[in-house]
Write a structure and sequence with these properties.
Elements lengths: L15 H25 L3 H4 L4 E7 L4 E4 L5 H4 L2 H15 L8 E4 L11 E10 L2 E11 L29 E5 L2 E2 L1 H10 L3 H29 L1 H24 L4 E11 L9 E12 L2 E5 L16 H17 L2 H4 L12 E4 L18 H15 L15 E9 L2 E9 L27 H7 L2 E8 L15 E7 L3 E7 L19 E5 L5 E3 L4 E6 L4 E5 L14 H9 L5 H8 L2 E2 L5 E2 H12 L1
Parallel strand pairs: 10-11
Antiparallel strand pairs: 1-2, 1-5, 3-4, 3-6, 4-5, 6-7, 8-9, 9-10, 12-13, 12-16, 14-15, 15-20, 16-19, 17-18, 17-20, 21-22
Length: 597
Amino acid sequence: MKNPAKRVTARDTINPVTASVIQGALENVAMEMGYKLMRMSYSSIIRESEDFGAALVDRQCRQLCESKQSTPLQSGPIPGYVRGILREFEKRGESIRDGDVIMHNDAYGGASHGPDVSFTVPVFYHDKLVGYSVTTAHHLDIGALAPGSCGIVEALDAYAEGLQFKAIKVYDEGKRNDAVWQILRDNIRVSDLVVGDMEAQVAASRIGAERFVALIDQYGLDTIDAAAEALFNNSERMMRDAIRKLPDGEYSATGYIDGYLDDKDPSKRDLILKVAIRVRGDELTVDLTGTAPQVSDRPINMPFEGTVDVAIWLVLRSVLLDSDVHGHIPQNSGLTRPITIIAPEGCLANPIFPAPTIARFCPGNALADTVMKALAPAVEKQVSAGIGNLKVIAFSGMEAGKQWVHMEIFEGSYGGRYGKDGMDAVDTLYANTRNNPIEDIESHVPLRVNRYELRQDGGGYGRWRGGMSSIRDFTFLSDGAAAVEGEGHKYKPWGFKGGTDGRTAELVFASANGEKINMPSKVQHMPFGAGDTLSCIGAGGGGYENPLDRDLDQVQDDVLDDLYSVEVAREHYGTVISTDGTLDREASGLLRKRRKG
């Protein structure tokens, strides 16, 4: 095949057309890696929820591209995984060789947290290391003190959170390290699914490496390097231009997480998140000074590299470079160059080993939401009001003498936005996974989903309403257990510019004999009997602007869709609607006039 562009030397300046073509080719490689990982995986957390990442990284640990269908919390940390691997190898005096496959999940070495395991294939071209092909994925179990890989909210330290893999070669120069794979099978629950998913990651990473080499064959290494520099510089330029449009100054916000609301120790509940954003020209600093100290014996601490940085980058990129406005944004390491992040060592957002981190998911989402809140005054029309946070539930049990585990990422909701209502019942901010179809759950594990619906009156009131949360009732068909990691049972999603705050989340245990117990946002491994039900009720997003300015027809539609009751329409929206759904425009106009007066 004839090359579509002239090969260049390192001294040449690549033309933008060739750079754009190579950008598209790189992105296609990452997309192929992602889709093949999905199709080869055994567990629903990867196959259905798409809780995985795939990316190519150059030899300087800079991300070249990522799979679009992956989540920011999986693909975003990948350069950090590679840096962590290289630090470990340097410490041990090991070298990277062609044919190696390296497993890594060190939460203090670039990984997002322990259950998100990466498999890295170093890419060699004519015996020269030219980059890395990497997949990450959230695994059902990692050998922690309780079944599952989230919902573990009582870990004393990092060692209680499961197996730690610090740059372990599962293939050494192409030879399989059978001992490592046997350790995995012997120490991980549902190892047939987990090890199968890991083997799928290895295959997908190898596919990425093969495609990367083929791309270098087609264009030449100097051309690929020149294109990469052009792509990094272009992404950096786009971010700097976006930052330059912000007024210089400091923007700050305070957020809170529940922590452990039922704990007598005040240092474990009502934990503060402080964000100060300083804009100077085309550079931006996010300072988390004032954030609560780490909780040394509870796993809600957030790794600085892999969780905190990704949460911040995600918000800045999505707000300042919205794809709806700017079109396709090449996702690479150039975007983060103008951004500096400060987090004092020993705080929730920069813990010290061995502080546990496995339950960092919901706190990290709350941090991202607080960054959005801080940025809001500078870009009012580009943000949403407060988001409804998510839950992660680890269901488990024994059936016919065999362990089963199911991970449920229970969706939240977005706040209202300028000109648009908040999105209903979706994973928010850096989560961005899909929900599990009921049919998939019921066909694989002994759970019955008896109810799945939007929560009426579930979002904050505003000219553009907050997103509605959902309700799911899970009934155990046999004896089992569940553990829950959540947030937002005490602190409401924030309303913006006159919109009201959203609604807090709830969690209800209902026994088979009818007893009901309201539960906190975090529940350690808890037994359930056959017929017992766990009812999950999500938080509703905050409202945007005055609800009395909402279009009357929109309020009527919301009532007809059972999103609001007629009482809420009258009380909060000044809209008079009869029980049969008829809108009284004249009465509504008078009521709104009185309310505004």
